[in-house]
Amino acid sequence: MAGITGKDAVLTEYARKLETLDAPKGRSLTQDAMRRLTRNKAAVVSIGVVIFIILFAFVGPYLIPWTYDKIDWSGIRKPPNFEAGHFAGTDQNGRDMLARIMQGTQMSLIVACVATLVSVFIGVCYGAIAGYFGGKVDAVMMRFVDIMYALPYILFVIILVVMFGRNPVLLFVGIGCLEWLTMARIVRGQTLSIKEREFVEAAKAGGAKPWTIIFRHIVPNLTGPVVIYATLTVPEIILTESFLSYLGLGVQEPQTSLGTLISFGSPVAETLPWMLIGPAVVLVSLLLCLTYIGDGLRDALDPKDR
Amino acid sequence: MKQVLKVEDMSVTFELHQSEVHAVRDMNFTLAEGETLAVVGESGSGKSQAFLAIMGLLAKNGRAGGRAMMGDINLIGMAPGQLDKHRGKDIAMIFQDPMTSLNPTLKVRTQLAEVLVKHRSFDQQKATIAAIEMLERVGIPEPAKRANAYPHELSGGMRQRVMIAMALLCQPKILIADEPTTALDVTVQAQMLDLFKTLTEDFGTSLVLITHDLGVVAGVADRMMVMYGGRAVEKGTVDDLFYDPRHPYTLGLLHSTPHIAHRAARLDPIQGLPPSLEHLPKGCSFNPRCAFAFDRCLVERPPLADTGNGREKACFYEGPMAYGKVA
Amino acid sequence: MFGYVTRRVLSAIPIALIAVTACFFILRLAPGGPFDGERALPPVTLANLRAHYNLDLPLIQQYFIYVMRLLQGDFGPSMVYNDFTVAEMIWIGLPFTLMLGFSAFIIGTIVGLVAGAISAVNQNKWPDYVLVLLVMIGLVVPNFLMAAIMQLAFGVYLDWFPAGGWQNGSLAHLVLPVTVLVLPHAGRTARLMRGSMIEVLGTNYVRTARSKGLGQRLILARHAIKPALLPVVSYLGPGLSYLLTGSLVVEQVFALPGIGKYFISAALNRDYGLVLGTTILYMFIILAVNLLVDIIYAWLDPKVRYR
What we know:
The complex is a heterotrimer.
Chain A: H1 7-20, H2 31-39, H3 41-58, H4 97-133, H5 135-150, H6 153-163, H7 168-194, H8 198-205, H9 210-218, H10 223-246, H11 258-265, H12 274-301
Helix pairs in contact in A: 1-7, 2-12, 3-4, 3-12, 4-5, 4-7, 4-10, 4-11, 4-12, 6-7, 7-10, 8-9, 10-11, 10-12, 11-12
Chain B: E1 3-15, E2 20-32, E3 36-40, H1 47-54, E4 62-70, E5 73-74, H2 80-83, E6 91-94, H3 98-101, H4 108-119, H5 124-137, H6 143-147, H7 156-168, E7 174-178, H8 186-203, E8 206-211, H9 214-220, E9 223-228, E10 231-237, H10 238-243, H11 248-256, H12 295-299, E11 305-308, E12 311-313
Helix pairs in contact in B: 4-5, 5-7
Chain C: H1 2-29, H2 43-52, H3 59-71, H4 86-121, H5 126-140, H6 143-157, H7 172-201, H8 204-211, H9 216-253, H10 260-268, H11 272-300
């Protein structure tokens, strides 16, 4: 998938390198890596900001007077007005912007998590199977990945979304189905090196079946790179979802997401700037911080890669 | 004997996050014209770093101090632009792993010819011809064909020969070879050492051979310098040190090398491990592993002292050195 | 080298075929069709329409008919814009989109490569910090947001450039949209180039080059560039892909006459012909670019030529 933030291009490089290294770096996913991560100031600050945003999105609604779909007939298109409880103003329908931003952030985050899990699941299974069985199976499977990589994926997304209607669950799954490609590559690379290690041989000698070996022995050793890529996938997914919502193909009314908010806010930004600024700030901060965290994790787990 | 290189009080320090590591300290030696000096030591002894410093190839967090006089000029601390006038021309270096030391995207002849084009202002054609001649000189069969190949198309031994050819093209006065045979098969090693001997005689080049392998030293070197914990601990001719070592570390090295003629029941390594450069032992750096250490060794570091006959050692012990397990 | 090129071209053909097939069947298997409009059509009309567009034939047969026509350059009729064939519609909008996309691609790639190289050579000094910051901004802000911001800032408030629309041959109208497209691409390219160049500058063979007294400029130009470009070049295929899809949004925001807006409305209206046609065309373009990229890669890295 043409990674929207380009992370997976960077990680494709990483995946290529992993194919030629011998020991999986997953071992150091503990205090060593944690120490390096905490020394990275940008990452630490970013973690703080992300936590804040999560709280903002999920706890925030309980702290403000308006809900995201309640219409305040007396305050339509109003700029921020602290007395009326509209801290971020109202939109053209008189709904409270702050509440809508919170709800939008919730939606974006939920989609991101679910889609990430889907893509991790598919990617890990696919990559582990390809890497473990090797040979023809591997060649065919990876060729498929290569082909998928080259195609204009977002067009497929749009087609898929149009096909299956605006069902939010399918939205999550659909987006997840896009992002698994690079995960699969990385997992395959790691699997190739892990399967040569002694404990795998021991398991084989003990008569374990391939599926057991893959899921009981190999997959647990993949945690390092999987975590890194999963963290870097999240901003990609948020971007994809925002993009779709912006085009009107994502989340539907009255629910909203950051992308939808921005799509409504942009055309009227001259006269109603608060409709654009709020969601834009949240979206950009979220993406920026997730990117820093992802980079930080990658550096912490493989410092030579700087 | 004319001196081509005189190193005085050289040190190499690396700056880490919260501390400094002294990789090399108080280094002093001379290199005479046409001689081959072996620099021996384990990993971490500082032997490579010292010469990387002279060539100006230290990592970004490394600082070199002292002087490395090649004629009238001091190579230490010289700006890279100035150094470039001498590197590859008057002083050259070859490295341990020929596979990664050659550019995989450039043909062999390009990598060879460029030194001549840069330093001797040859034109491309003349340089290529000279390069092919040198390839033949270093013993590569079908040199013209090989010159047109990429490094990954050659075997390890051939790649190392290419590196040697590359280093010698401008006929430098000094050639530094950092573990040149470590990455090669033993049979190829022997050929390589013969090559070194022949070439240094033919070209009159002084050779510094950095190695941890005493067999390599015996075959090629005139004099040797043993390093431990960032410092030189013994210096002298190869014969002197091999038959009459005066430093316990040198003794240990000699006896830990298995000899093909003697069947030994067990290998005899030096007990203990090389010290971490950040936490060197107090007194003599070797004292934890030394069979001859006494109380003075634990508090005072022995300086490198002249013992006559062109020999130097850094040790307080003056007694006989017979090998045996001394408690 | 020639053998490699031939092999790659030949292997691209089955890929193209698979892509077309996949696209065709996915679109057709979706629920809903082009005539599921707001009002239900009388059954007879519906039957006639379907027969006219061959929709009553078995799917496989439709597929073959489609492929045969495709090979002759005929993308079939548009089912929604009745007066046009798909080919005609594509012809109206595609040249503009391609121009927009490719100019942004080329500019973005060059800017990215230069920025990345400067960053790497000056690692951790101020040019590096400034460039890394700019790259972050380019990467993180989604293109639809960036488009809105640019439009507001430069088109409306500062009024330096027209905020949208298109007048034939007017460069000024292109400045903002191209910038919006260039930023993320340049950002990603710069990031890759920086990392790659830093790695190359730390390799043993660059150390050897330094030991030969070649000088920084010669080392960069001859020894470092080719290996450093490798990972970046691998990215260019997907990079273009992203750029073309980004142009959909940019065309909408800036009201530009490309194929973007047709595509989206075609997708929403289930105009199979137009959607399929555009997608296939995009795919061919990207496959062609990927092929080109593979060839460049093989030129840069001799080891790959035996594959």
